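Re: that chain you flagged

S.,

Sorry for the slow reply, it's been a week of failed gels. I finally had a moment to sit down with the sequence you sent. For the record, here it is as I used it:
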Amino acid sequence: MPKVCRACEARHGGICSVLTGSQLAELNKHSNRKSIDGGTELVGQGENIGTYSNIVRGVVKLSKMMADGRQQIVGLQFAPDFLGRPFSHESSLTAEAATNTEVCAFPRAVLERMIADTPELEHRLYDQSLKELDEARDWMLTLGRKTAREKVASFLHLIATHVDPDAGDGCEFELPLSRADIADFLGLTIETVSRQMTKLRKDKIILVENNRHVIVPDIENLNEAAGND
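Prediction finished late last night. Pasting the C-alpha cells below so you have them in one place:
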C-alpha cells in the first residue's frame, strides 16, 4: 500500500476503503493531491469531466445555476466524500471549495476501469449516492416545513455531524459558509440567519467566537433545536 494512502481519511472511510493494496498502488500512480484555496471553483456546471476526486480535507459547496443567472446552493460535501458522478461526461453542478480544501484527484478513465473490475467499488459509490439522496430528501423537509430557528439549527447540526462525526457530547468547528451563503442554502434572509444565530447563542445552545468559530456544548440540545427526533 502506498505510504500516502495509509493515513488518508478517504482510504478508511471513502471509496478507497474497498480497494486492495495493489489497486491502491495502481490508483496512486495516476492520482494527484491538490490543495485548493476557499472560493476556488473545482468544476463548473456544464464543463466536461476529466477527473474525479476524493475530498481529503475541507468542505465543498455544490450549486446550480438557472438560465437567467440565478444560483442556488444545493448541497455540501465533506471528507471523505467522493466528488463526481461516474460515467457522466458533463458536470450538472458547480463545485467550489467552501473552505481551504485538499483533494486527491485521478483521471476519470482510470477510476471507471476500476469500477468495471471491482464490484465492491461500484457498490460503495452506489451507497454514497443513496446516502446523498436520503440527505437531499431530509433537506427538502428542512426547507419546506421547518421554522427559521429549526433551519439554522439544522444547518449547524449538519456541519457538526459531518466535520466531526466522532464527537461525543459536544464539538466545535469553523463555519464553512458566509452568512449570505447560509441564507441562500436555507432560503432565508441574511438578517434572519443572524437573528436566529443570536437566539441560539442566547439560549446557550451554541457559542460563537470571532464570528465564524462555533462551539456546541451539547450536540443533543442542538439536535432538539433543529426539530429532529
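What I noticed first: The first strand starts at residue 32 and ends at 36.

Talk soon,
D.
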